[in-house]
Prior knowledge:
alpha/beta
Amino acid sequence: MKRIPFFSLQKPILAIHIRKKFLLLSLMGLFLLGALAYTLPPAAKQVFSAVESAAERKLPIYCVQTEKPQIAITFDAAWGADDTDELLRILRENDVTATFFLCGYWVEDFPEEVKKIAEAGHDIGNHSATHPHMSQLSAEEIAKELQQCHDTVKELTGIEMDLFRPPFGEYDNHVIETAQANGYYTIQWDVDSLDWLEKGEQAEIDQVLQHQHLGNGSILLFHNDAEYTPKVLDTIIKGLKEKGYELVPVSELIYRENYTMDHEGRQIPSTAQNT
């Protein structure tokens, strides 16, 4: 019978002991970490909480991973409405369906404009009721902001919104989780037209068409009341089409299920993980 060296017999036993010791040390470390967090002064607890939550940071949808050359144009509507008809005309003449994120008070102030947006077949998304800094609100206050705007739009158009853009583009885990609990996908952007800076027509055109992040699955940000957007939107749309992009609403661009998010806020379909 072949003899097995003694050191070979010791290897599995030694490995078991090492695993047990590692597990014991890990459990002790977690216990001490928890005890430390419990005994920290308030200011230190905030730092500890911030470090702990950073590893679990949630992101809104900035863009989408797709092989289709599709992108989405979005408008935030929170202030005036003088240019709405012109924007809708340009979109109609270019056969483009966009996404409008509306504040509740804007809907109340300009109901006829909202009806025109809805009747033209554009997406309507929730931009909160009063345009607050959402990350400074409680879960109950965030839910109220969402619901008030939701109810106002539904009563006027019959549309059940499920797309949400936080005012000022501000968010944290609390905002995203509360929006999700209320049936909303939180939508950001990866191409900012910077139209609100009003730097001029060519500057806005170049900002979009030459943007480093422009690509398949991009979400573009405009505002419905920016000075130069009505003047350059037609040029931008034609330029995007010349680059080979199809312009679709956010509702057609994003994935509703079976997806993950990367560190840049890119939505990735689960099937892509297995290819």
